Amino acid sequence: MEVQRISTLKAILQEIRNTVDEQLNLQLELNKCERIIQRLNSFSVACEECNQHFTLLEDDILQLKDKLGDLEDSDLKHHKQTLETISSHLQGKHKLVSSGHYLSISMCFGPSIGLLFGMLIFDNIGFWLPIGMGIGIIIGAYLDADAGKKGLVL
Question: Which domain, by its residues, includes 74?
Fold first, then answer.
């Protein structure tokens, strides 16, 4: 992708960020847009679908800029749907994960394992349930940090 297109999109995102209030900034997920732009740029050489998604995101951001004064709920909904479509492509095809992905998964398994140990082996559920949750949090945080080091976090 052209470096100029990317820098133009980032400049537009910065302009939108400076113009809108904090609540709308969070709703538009502008930081996530920047990360997605970077990822689409890195995968665009080998993936034609990433090129198409980049064009789609570019059109969406330009549309947001044009409607900046009077954004409607349908515009926000369309923007979120676009981001979700692109994110699901990046997660499915390029094996990226969202931030906190492993932590959320391991927080489910940790208490389950603690419950299993507490019921079957040690006959003390109240003691092993929080220990299992703690172990799950530690494992999930480790896996999230490892994915971040490998550059697999979207």
Answer: 3-93
